[in-house]
């Protein structure tokens, strides 16, 4: 491909990537609701977390509604108990492996309270779950719990959650590694800023989360 044609193709691809990222970042936030996050899976089960209205983790466990374990009745019972115990108002299901099956399972359950069900992008959740920010906030939990928390928080406030990771792993388009990486980074960084999240604001979001960790630790330990 001639250099000029390659440059034009890169520019168009980068424009598409940036627009996809913008739509992700500006997705309407659910707000301060009590949310259940589900990171779906087959063999390893579905990791379930419950968050309070401020996005703090209050409970986590696994359910196994799909083969090969296939404990649907037990999984349904656990879901109902968690939803009632933590007064869950919405459920966020990651859009990865077993997402469709998990959504089908959840939406066919009868709960004692009204609960909205959403499927959210889990791209980049594994990057966040292994990051220092996630380890600092959840030092006693493994990456599966952190990933499910990220999925739930993306429903509550997509912008505040997604800016914690580098834009490129969010999965904003095909072949993003084939284009000019310098141009791509500049475009994606500019998109983040255009969505109202400068590096200063981004740092402030993370600082607030760190402060929340400190306050929880202080209240627990004096």
From TrEMBL:
Domain YqgF/RNase H-like: 33-129
Domain of life assignment: Bacteria
A single GO molecular function term of this UniProt record: structural constituent of ribosome
Pfam families: Tex_YqgF
Recorded coiled-coil stretches: none
A biological-process GO annotation: translation
InterPro entries found in the cross-reference section: Ribos_protein_bS1-like (IPR050437), RNaseH-like_sf (IPR012337), Tex-like_dom_sf (IPR023323), Tex_YqgF (IPR032639), YqgF/RNaseH-like_dom (IPR006641), YqgF/RNaseH-like_dom_sf (IPR037027)
Protein name: RNA-binding protein
């Amino acid at each position: 491909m001639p250099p000029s044609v390659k440059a034009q193709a890169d520019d168009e691809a980068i424009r598409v990537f940036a627009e996809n990222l913008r739509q992700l970042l500006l997705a309407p936030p659910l707000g301060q609701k009590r949310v259940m996050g589900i990171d779906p899976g087959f063999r390893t089960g579905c990791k379930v977390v419950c968050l309070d209205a401020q996005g703090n983790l209050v409970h986590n466990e696994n359910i196994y509604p799909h083969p090969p374990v296939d404990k649907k009745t037990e999984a349904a019972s656990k879901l109902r108990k968690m939803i009632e115990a933590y007064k869950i108002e919405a459920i966020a299901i990651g859009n990865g492996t077993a997402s469709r099956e998990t959504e089908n399972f959840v939406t066919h359950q009868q709960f004692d309270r009204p609960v909205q069900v959403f499927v959210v992008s889990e791209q980049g959740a594994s990057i966040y779950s292994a990051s220092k920010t996630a380890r600092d906030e959840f030092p006693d939990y493994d990456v599966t719990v952190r990933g499910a928390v990220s999925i739930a928080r993306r429903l509550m406030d997509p912008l505040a959650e997604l800016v914690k990771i580098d834009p490129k792993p969010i999965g904003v388009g095909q072949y993003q590694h084939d284009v000019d990486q310098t141009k791509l980074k500049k475009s994606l960084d500019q998109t983040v800023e255009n969505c109202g999240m400068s590096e200063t604001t981004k740092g402030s979001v993370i600082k607030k989360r760190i402060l929340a960790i400190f306050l929880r630790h202080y209240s627990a330990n004096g």
